[in-house]
Each structure stands twice: as structure tokens, then as C-alpha cells.
Design a protein that fits this description.
6-stranded mixed beta sheet; 25 helices; disordered N terminus; SpoIIE family protein phosphatase/ATP-binding protein; cell membrane
């Protein structure tokens, strides 16, 4: 509020924003507050009295009210007097006429007139009638007007004063006269004989003062009402005066006038529109500048701002009353900066006030700044959202998505197939549409996955040839572009696509492909500034695409190495039905592996291992461990001894790796090794830091085998223990790595419970079991490698096994040969009788000569014919060349020549020498 000269009230402490400023009270302010308090405490009635003196608006209203009340009182009194006078005359006429007629027609009146002394008879009656009817006189007279009666007896016999002519003629006379007793109304009526002749006259009269008195009774009421009205006017004026003083902050009429004139001059002279909007969005005030800026009609006030034909966004803003600061709104050809604040702060009236400033001259500058900000925002978003993964196709799609629709209506990314494989692109090769993004799905552009070549005359061909971005402002006139595919390009133009920018994706000296930006929604073609933006955008994305390409190449090499180290096919064997799954890690190759190794005596070894870590080093280490397991298993070692040798190997590998070298130590490698014997139906298992195997019984019951948990490989110093499991035929042994049951989101106990549930619901075959386990984890992209091996046990039938105990006597060899020949005949293998007899003869003879009792022979018919000789000795035979003079040493040589494979394995009670022959 503007402070005007002569104002005595305190100045408002509200800043323009509407927030109350808090200041420490100074001496002047404290003195002013004390004075105000003293006035309010000691002069509570001062303001009403000053208001009544007429110097304020309230006083002027009070004077006006007093004048009006006095005028109303005077008018009421005059009207009352006139009404009373009229009513008194009418009442006097009616009463005098009624009394005269009643007395004239009363019984005996006519007879008394004919009596010798009418006065004697009529005087008492007339006085009685006068007193009863409260009239001033009742006079009976003859037709000559001589009185027979009168209230004053000495006037009897005298002539009646008044007009009696009409009455003598039979009529009635009512008249007002000024008599000796004052202003009166008298009526004269005839006394008629039966034949209608007038025999006498009766006059009755009453003064108006006797009829009146109504004015005397009503005038006090009128004056009292006037007094009450004056009292109410005084009280109302005092209340209005107090309210006006509060609302005007003590300003008088002169001050209010000056303030209004000043504010009105300021309001309409400023070059900023001012609009005040009240409740329900009605326009209360708009200055001249607001009328000009918004093109408001002359009668805009009191109308809703939504009905004034304003821009919808501007009308909604003004009607909403929300707080805004320098919010830009286009209105016609102007750009208005709008500031709006509510007016109901600190108990003010509800509504809002808005100021409008014409910012049209800043539109071009702000538009360029906004365009630059949007472009910077686009480049920033591209840097954040493009390249979130190391997948080439995903990165290309992220580039297309970030540029549509903020920069182009359609975006296509075309890359060489070699780039998608992680290789260096070949110039001149076909491109493949890798990513497409658009505002609509019906655009006639090449679909994703389509392979094609661009002709030399097309903008894309020129970009590939020159390695520079190409802008084609008008596609409908570009003949070289139409040569690419006349039918399709015609449909593209008909679809509304009218301009394009194509930018080569460059990574150093390589061109990986093209990114093409198409526009259809905006009528303006691309310009050179947008060409520069497109080049910058693609240049940033090219780094991410090239990184993804390089990663794809490295990942492919690692996967190739890893898969080359894993078993490609499973060996043939009869002890187990096997199915497996291997899932590489989401982020790269790892060190998980598995193996199925046939052993002597129809036994099969199952191996599952895991090298902690990812990458080429983990894959290479996995290959070394797998090779070591192959070699150690050829020695027919028990699981615990094999793990001990593997533990020493991992320890040596760790020692060979430098701490700061490219390869990390292999600490944390785990392994599980199991040997299944189909003859005994038993499985011996040992594990080094690996999860325990699951066993599914033939009836479907699932249990995790209680196998002692040895330390991970490479720690050394601790022995490994084995567990022997008895597996009925049809049991399923499930081996897996920890990537299947453990990750960052769940612990291993939860994973084992989920695995148990999946195995319990799996089908009976190993393949169905693998499928059920992985389906239970869908969608499943492991962060670690997953190896899963399921083996269903078989048993070697008793009729395929033959066993004999052999005494430690060379003569017993003949009996063994005979028994073997008979069994081979039963099996239909007579063709192998000679070689088998020779092999067993040599092996049994060696056991008798060099071994120790007890001695046994076992023959198995499996995929091959297996001959085994047991003894309790610990010496192992060696194949050697016998000299010409040697008596022995040729037996094992003959065995090696006749058998396909042979070897020695040690048991807790001795050793077994075995030999295998292929079946015919």
C-alpha cells in the first residue's frame, strides 16, 4: 500500500511477496504503539463521538440518517393531522346524522310535536339522547325553525341557526358551521307524518374536538418511534464507524480520496498488466495494460476469466489462483511473463492478483536458450542411457529410443553383421537394421533384422563413402534417394516423412554402420544446427557401440575357450542315464565344469567343479583342473585321494600366479567327485567345498546326501573324507554348482529348499529333471555359471557277472580256464574264449606268484568283456620288454596285445588287475 500524506496509522510491514517482515521494534515504533494503546484504553468512545461530528464518512452518514428521520417524522405528523381531520369530520357527520334520524323516528316524537307543550315532553328526551350519544346538542324545532329543545334552556323558543330548507321539504341537511361552541357538524332531518308531510325538524350537532383525540393518542407513538430510529441510527453509525476505521486503517474521506486517485493513476499508467480475480474465477479488476495485452472486452469485469476468450492455459492459470513466478504464456503474438499471488493472506479477501509483463522481445532469445538447453539435455540423457549394457543390439536400441521423439520422429540404426558378432566390419558388406524407434508403428521403413545394401546415390551410401554426415532436407525431390527402393521410398514420402539426417557410426578408423534420423510430424526440414547435434549424438553413442562390439568379441572368445574345455559329448557307458545343463554367467564366462568319466569294472566317475571368478583366467584354470581330473581318474584313484592330488595342483597354480599379475589366484575352487559301481549299486562321494549332491529315490523322495564337507581346493593341509551311498536301481543323483542355489538375493538354504521342491515335482527321466529345475528358476539369467548333472542309476544284472575264488596254487589255473570257457559259451562269446583264457591265465599266474591270498576272478559282460583278478598284494605289475635270455616278463606283454585296455587299481584290501576286450 502506498503511504499517503496525512496518514496517521502505522505503515504496513508486508513485503510485495505477501510475507510479513519481522523487525525489531525501534523507539519510535514503541512510542507509537504505546500511544495507540493509550487511545484504545482511555478513549474507547472517542471514535464514535468523532464519527458523529460529521468529519468522517460515518459522521456524514449519521447526519444524513438524522435528517431523513426528522423528515419522516414531520411527514408522519402532517399526514396524521390531515388524516385525523378528515376522519373527525366524517365521524361527526355520521354521528350527528345518526342521532338526528334516530331521535326524529323515535316513538312519541311526532306525537309530542302535536302536544300543547312540546318542550315539556321533548326537552328531557333530547337531553337524555344527547348525553347518551355524546353529541353537543339535540334540538327539536317546528318547520319554522323555532326550537322546542336546547341544551341551554334560555335558547328554547328561539330560531335555529342553520339551513333548514331542504329538511322542510323532506330532505336531510348535513353541514359544517362555526357555532358559538366552536367548529361543529350538524344534521337536520324532518319528522314526517304517515302521509309524508313534514311536521317538525330534529337537529343534532357535535364539535370536531369532541370527535377528535386520535391525534393526541397517535402523535406520542410517532414521536417515540422517531426517537428509537434516531437511537438506532446513532448505534449503527457507531458500529459502521468502528468497522470503517478498521478497514480503512484510520484514513479519513480526504485521505481515502487521495489514495484512490493516486492508486487509480498508478494502476492505469504502469506498463504492466494487473488483474484481480475473485471467487469462482470472476474478473474483478483489469487495468488498461491488461486490457491491451489480453485483448479484453470493455465489459470484462464481473465475468468468468474462462468466458473471456483467453488462451486456455492462461485462462486456467488465472482461474486457478495458483502461485507462479515469471511463468511464460503465449497469448496471440505475444509472450507474457505472469506472476500470480493469492490475496487472502492475513485474512484478506479470497482471490488472486496477477501481473502480466510483455516479454515478446525476449521470445527469440529465450527460444534459442530453451533449444540449447533441450539439446544439452538430450546429449546428457544420451550419455546416461546409451551404453547401459555391453550388448550391441541393446545399445543401438537405446540410441534410437533416446533420440525419438525429442530429436526425430523415427530413428533407425543399421550396423554391419560383423559388428554384431564383435568383429571388425568389412567395407562394402551388407548392413542389418539393428534398431528401430518411431512415433508410429506403421511407418514403411525397413523392419528390424532386415539386411540390405544402400545404393551409392542415396544419402546413406554417400555417408558410408565419405564417412561424413549427410542432410537431405526434401526427400520428395531427392532422386538419388528414390533409387534405393522406388516403391518403398514412395510409400515413405506418402507417409509424411519428408527430411532425414544420416550419420556414420565411426570408431577410430572403422565405420560400424549408420544412424538415420527421419522427420514427419514437424513441417520444417532438418537444418545445419540439427546436423551438428546429430553428429555429436552419434559420436557419443559410437563409443558405447564400439565398447559393446569389443566386449562381444572378447566374450565370444572366452565362451569359445570355455566351451572347448567342457565336454562336447558324453562318453558311452551302461551304468548311468545322464542329462546335463550348462548356463554361462550373465556377465561373462566363468570356471564351472562337469565331466563323466568311464572307469574300469563298468564304473563311472561324475565330476562337478567351480573356479571362483569370471573371465579368461577362470576358464583357463577350469581347463587345467579338468585335464588334471582326467589324468588322475586314469589312475583309478578313490575320490578322496583324487581330491588330495587336485588340491596340491591348485596350490601350485596359485604359487605360480604373481599377486599383481593379470591372472588372479584360484583360491576358492571347489569340486565334487563321485564313483558309481553298477555291480555293487554303491556310490562313493567326496567333496572339496562344494554343495552336497541331491539323491532322488525311485519313489520320488528327495534328500541331500550327508557327505563330509572338505575345504576348497588350494588351501591344503587337511584330508578329504568320503561317503558311501547305496543307490537302488532307478535312483537319480543330482550334482550342481553353487550358481544354481545361491546368489546375491538369496542364501544357499533358500536355494536348496527351492531345488528340493523342483526335484520333487520333476519327471522320472534325467532330462525331465534338468528341465524342471531350470523351469522353476524362470526367468533366470544367472550372475554365476550354472552346471547341472543328473544321473539315473542302472544295475548290472547278476547273469552278466561271473566270480570265482582261486586257491594260491598254480594248478588251479586250469580250473579257472575251464569255468571261463563255459561262461563265455553261455554268453555266446565263444570267439573270445582263447584270448580270454590266455589273459586270465597270465593274470592269475602273476597273482599266485607275486601276489597274496585271497585271490579272486571276476568277469563282467558290459559294453566290453571285462576280466578282473583280485589279490591282497600291493605290488603293481609293469609292462616291459623281456630279453631273449629272460624266462619271464612276457605275460603282461601278451595281455596288452590281446586286450583293448588293461590296468591296475588299488583297493583297501589289495589291488585289481583288469583287462577289457571289445565284444564281437
Amino acid at each position: 500500500m502506498v503511504r499517503l500524506p496525512g496518514r496517521t496509522g502505522p505503515r504496513s510491514s508486508h513485503p510485495p511477496s505477501g510475507r510479513r517482515l519481522e523487525h525489531a521494534p525501534g523507539p519510535a515504533r514503541r512510542a507509537r504503539e504505546r500511544a495507540e494503546h493509550s487511545r484504545s484504553a482511555a478513549g474507547g468512545s472517542t471514535r464514535p463521538r468523532s464519527a458523529l461530528r460529521g468529519r468522517s464518512v460515518a459522521g456524514q452518514v449519521f447526519v444524513l440518517q438524522v435528517v431523513i428521520v426528522l423528515l419522516l417524522v414531520v411527514a408522519a405528523v402532517v399526514a396524521l393531522v390531515l388524516q385525523v381531520r378528515h376522519d373527525t369530520t366524517a365521524e361527526a357527520r355520521n354521528r350527528s346524522l345518526a342521532v338526528a334520524e334516530t331521535f326524529a323516528n323515535a316513538p312519541g316524537t311526532r306525537e309530542a310535536l302535536a302536544a300543547p307543550d312540546p318542550t315539556a315532553i321533548l326537552q328531557p328526551r333530547a337531553e337524555a339522547a344527547r348525553e347518551a350519544t355524546h353529541v353537543d346538542f339535540v334540538v327539536v324545532m317546528n318547520t319554522d325553525g323555532v326550537r322546542y329543545t336546547h341544551p341551554v334552556p334560555d335558547r328554547i323558543g328561539k330560531k335555529f341557526v342553520g339551513d333548514i330548507g331542504p329538511a322542510v321539504r323532506g330532505g336531510t341537511v348535513v353541514e359544517e358551521v362555526d357555532g358559538t361552541i366552536g367548529r361543529l357538524v350538524q344534521a337536520v332531518v324532518p319528522v314526517k307524518a304517515p302521509d309524508g308531510t313534514v311536521e317538525g325538524l330534529v337537529a343534532a350537532g357535535i364539535t370536531t374536538r369532541n370527535v377528535g383525540g386520535l391525534a393526541d393518542r397517535q402523535l406520542p407513538v410517532v414521536l417515540g418511534a422517531a426517537g428509537v430510529g434516531l437511537a438506532l441510527a446513532t448505534a449503527g453509525t457507531a458500529l459502521v464507524s468502528r468497522r470503517l476505521l478498521r478497514q480503512t486503517h484510520g484514513l479519513g474521506p480526504g485521505e481515502m480520496t487521495r489514495m484512490y486517485e493516486h492508486h487509480d493513476a498508478v494502476l492505469h499508467s504502469v506498463r504492466e498488466g494487473v488483474i484481480i480475480v475473485g471467487e469462482e474465477g470472476r474478473l474483478l479488476l483489469a487495468n488498461d495494460e491488461a486490457h491491451r495485452l489480453l485483448d479484453l472486452p470493455e465489459d470484462a469485469e464481473r465475468h468468468s476469466v474462462r468466458d473471456l476468450g483467453l488462451d486456455p492455459a492462461t485462462a486456467e492459470l488465472l482461474a486457478s489462483g495458483r502461485v507462479v513466478t515469471d511463468e511464460l504464456h503465449p497469448v496471440g503474438d505475444r509472450l507474457l511473463a505472469v506472476n500470480q499471488r493469492p490475496t487472502d493472506l492475513d485474512g484478506g479477501p479470497s482471490g488472486s492478483v496477477a501481473t502480466l509483463r510483455d516479454s515478446t522481445e525476449l521470445r527469440a532469445l529465450s527460444g534459442r536458450a530453451e533449444l540449447a538447453r533441450e539439446r544439452l539435455s538430450l546429449l546428457y540423457d544420451a550419455g546416461v542411457s546409451v551404453g547401459t549394457t555391453l550388448d550391441v543390439t541393446r545399445t543401438a536400441q537405446e540410441l534410437a529410443d533416446v533420440a525419438m521423439p525429442r530429436f526425430a520422429d523415427f530413428v533407425t540404426v543399421d550396423l554391419y553383421d560383423a559388428v554384431l558378432r564383435g568383429e571388425d566390419p568389412e567395407p562394402g558388406a551388407a548392413l542389418r537394421r539393428t534398431a528401430v524407434s518411431g512415433v508410429r508403428d506403421d511407418a514403411p521403413l525397413y523392419a528390424a533384422g532386415r539386411q540390405f545394401r544402400f545404393v551409392e546415390s542415396s544419402p546413406q551410401g554417400a555417408a558410408l563413402r565419405t564417412r561424413r554426415a549427410v542432410l537431405e532436407p526434401r526427400l520428395e525431390t531427392a532422386a538419388g534417394w528414390r533409387a534405393q527402393d522406388p516403391e518403398r521410398t514412395a510409400r515413405i514420402v506418402a507417409h509424411g516423412i519428408h527430411t532425414l539426417i544420416t550419420v556414420p557410426v565411426r570408431a577410430g578408423a572403422l565405420v560400424l554402420g549408420l544412424v538415420t534420423f527421419w522427420r514427419s510430424e514437424e513441417p520444417e526440414p532438418f537444418d545445419t544446427e540439427e546436423l551438428a547435434l546429430a553428429e555429436e549424438l552419434v559420436a557419443r553413442a559410437a563409443v558405447a557401440i564400439d565398447n559393446a562390439r569389443r566386449y562381444t568379441r572378447e566374450h565370444g572368445m572366452a565362451v569359445t575357450l570355455q566351451r572347448s574345455l567342457l565336454p562336447r559329448t558324453l562318453p558311452e557307458q551302461s551304468a548311468l542315464d545322464i542329462a546335463y545343463r550348462y548356463l554361462p554367467a550373465q556377465a561373462g564366462v566363468g570356471g564351472d565344469w562337469f565331466d563323466v568319466l568311464p572307469l574300469s569294472g563298468a564304473r563311472v566317475a561324475l565330476v562337478v567343479g567351480d573356479v571362483v571368478g569370471h573371465g579368461l583366467h577362470a576358464a583357463a584354470t577350469m581347463g587345467r583342473l579338468r585335464t588334471a581330473v582326467h589324468n588322475f581318474s586314469a589312475l583309478d584313484l578313490p575320490p578322496d585321494e583324487l581330491l588330495g592330488l587336485l588340491d596340491e595342483l591348485v596350490g601350485r597354480i596359485d604359487q605360480d600366479e604373481p599377486a599383481d599379475g593379470p591372472g588372479a589366484p584360484v583360491i576358492g575352487a571347489t569340486c565334487l567327485y563321485a564313483i558309481y559301481d553298477p555291480v555293487a549299486r554303491r556310490c562313493v562321494v567326496a567333496r572339496a567345498g562344494h554343495p552336497p549332491p541331491a539323491v532322488i529315490a525311485p519313489d520320488g523322495a528327495v534328500a541331500f546326501a550327508d557327505v563330509p564337507a572338505g575345504p576348497p581346493l588350494g588351501l591344503g593341509g587337511l584330508p578329504f573324507e568320503t561317503a558311501e551311498l547305496e543307490l537302488p536301481e532307478g535312483s537319480r543323483l543330482v550334482l550342481y554348482t553353487d550358481g544354481l542355489v545361491e546368489d546375491r538375493r538369496r542364501d544357499i538354504d533358500t536355494g536348496l529348499d527351492e531345488l528340493r521342491a523342483a526335484l520333487a515335482s520333476a519327471g522320472p527321466s534325467p532330462e525331465e529333471t534338468c528341465r524342471a529345475v531350470l523351469d522353476a528358476r524362470q526367468p533366470f539369467r544367472p550372475v554365476d555359471d550354472v552346471a547341472l548333472l543328473v544321473a539315473r542309476t542302472r544295475a548290472l544284472a547278476a547273469d552278466r557277472v561271473a566270480e570265482w575264488d582261486v586257491p594260491a596254487d598254480p594248478a588251479a589255473v586250469g580250473g579257472v580256464r575251464a569255468a571261463v570257457t563255459r561262461r563265455l559259451a553261455e554268453w555266446g562269446l565263444e570267439e573270445l574264449a582263447f584270448s580270454t583264457e590266455l589273459i586270465l591265465s597270465e593274470l592269475v599266474t602273476n597273482a599266485i606268484r607275486y601276489g597274496a591270498a585271497p585271490i579272486g576272478v571276476r568277469m563282467l559282460r558290459d559294453r566290453s568283456l571285462i576280466c578282473e583278478v583280485f589279490d591282497s598284494g600291493s605290488t603293481s605289475p609293469h609292462l616291459r620288454y623281456a630279453a631273449a635270455t629272460d624266462e619271464g616278463g612276457r605275460g603282461l606283454f601278451l595281455v596288452a596285445q590281446l586286450a583293448e585296455r588293461w590296468g591296475t587299481r588299488y583297493t583297501a584290501a589289495g589291488k585289481v588287475i583288469w583287462a577289457e576286450q571289445p565284444l564281437p
